[in-house]
Specification:
CATH class of chain B: Mainly Alpha
Radius of gyration of chain A: 21 Å
Strand content of chain A: 5-15%
CATH superfamily of chain B: Fumarate reductase/succinate dehydrogenase, transmembrane subunit
Largest interface: A-B, 50 and 44 residues
CATH architecture of chain B: Up-down Bundle
Number of helices of chain A: 8
CATH topology of the largest domain in chain A: Fumarate Reductase Iron-sulfur Protein, Chain B, domain 2
Radius of gyration of chain B: 20 Å
Strand content of chain B: under 5%
CATH class of the largest domain in chain A: Mainly Alpha
Distance between the termini of chain A: 58 Å
Number of domains of chain B: 1
Oligomer: heterodimer
CATH architecture of the largest domain in chain A: Orthogonal Bundle
Largest sheet of chain B: none
Structural class of chain A: alpha+beta
Helix content of chain A: 25-40%
Shape of chain B: globular
Number of strands of chain A: 7
CATH superfamily of the largest domain in chain A: Alpha-helical ferredoxin
Order of helices and strands of chain B: HHHHHHHHHHH
CATH topology of chain B: 3 helical TM bundles of succinate and fumarate reductases
Strand order of the largest sheet of chain A: 2-1-5-3-4
Distance between the termini of chain B: 59 Å
Shape of chain A: elongated
Order of helices and strands of chain A: EEHEEEEEHHHHHHH
Structural class of chain B: mainly alpha
Number of helices of chain B: 11
Helix content of chain B: over 70%
Number of domains of chain A: 2
Amino acid sequence: MSAENLKLKLKIWRQKGPNSAGSFSKYEVAVSPDTSFLEMLDELNDSLERKGEIPIAFESDCREGICGACGLVINGQPHGPVPLITTCQLHMRNFKNGDTIWIEPFRAKAFPVLKDLMVDRTGFEKIQQAGGFISINTGGVPDANEIAIPKDISSLAMDAAACIGCGACVAACKNASAMLFVSAKVSQYALLPQGQPERYERVQKMVKVMDEQGFGSCTNTYACEAECPKGISVTNIARMNRDYMKAKIISKNVEV
Amino acid sequence: MGWLSQSLNSSIGKKFVMAVTGISLILFLIIHLLNNLSMYLGPETYTALVKSLDGIKPLIRVIELVLALVFVFHIFNGVRLWLENKKARPGKYAVNGSVKNSTLFSRTMIQTGSIIFIFLVIHLNTMWYSFNFGEAHATHDYYYFVAEAFNSNIIYSLFYIFAMIVLGFHLNHGFQSAFQTFGWNHKKYFPLIEKIGFLYSLVMAIGFASIPVYFLFFYGGN
């Protein structure tokens, strides 16, 4: 804790509301290298409030990397320069004294900016509501391991289920495509026996809603995988492509 | 058939169309390159080879029509995807982070594709038209026609070489991308597919570009 404070120049996107034009505002801060990125913003907001200025709006919740609420584009990278962590897990020791840091909201037509660094990610909710679940009758608690699942398969399903729905994949993609998110949600069920009854219906419904939300198409740049804080693999996208085309070819349902 | 057009116009469907047409063009380029490389067998052999194709002209016309359709679908869908994807991402970031998370090849498909399209139009006009209806067709001197075309026009040759390097860039992303789109991304085989794709792109770029290089620098005329 003896390290000297870092003097940083921040260029932060300020936008009053969804329909107003935004621009970058300059701020200068001195922070301990031990603070987290969001704590630095908290401190800045505190000083802004003391001066009677409007604090910077940004989202956060758990601050331990599991809720997916925080998502900032830091120097052009969603969740900042360190791989496999969320913005809240990023610490200021990763920056150097005198650095200029550009802080922007996720940019995508499907994620409209609400205010400053806050975006509306309702699009993801709608995709989830279209099929990101399994339909089962609730009742007594089933016995553990009642259905045998090979370890490598359950691990793959767990890897896909690690997606926290933060939207960094959309933010990183030059096409603002949501394929990594949707493929993770599709895969976590497609891999497991419990997901089989609705497997092909699910993928068709979720992709349909994904397209309706205005997300772009995937062009396989794999930027999403590189920026994903949970390391979701693009092999999930391959699985979704496979399942989707298979569903379109074999399913007798011409409506979805 | 509403379901079919709906499927092919979905985000995944459009990828699928790009991949199927792309793979078809990848296969076509192999045949095309083999034909080009046969120039190294000498004027007589090359001219005889081209002439021998006269016998199956009707079949070639059918293949050309299919090929044209494949090109049209690939180009139309590619431009459409590019326009739609630009709309999906209206704002630009102040700092471009894409250098850190993706390859140059994957980010420049529309640019490389556009250069290849310009090349294609010129190429059809100079080579294909001449071989089928124009000067080379009239004289049957296919070899000397190509030799002269490259030898006498340095700008045309340099543009040809440049376009072939760009083609290599386009193919390097396209090859592996098609496999990913088909869903054939397997931990064991995908690294191999990427390597084969790179090798294929290198062979295509060097192979096609070698013809103008040869006639520009190593061809002494008749």
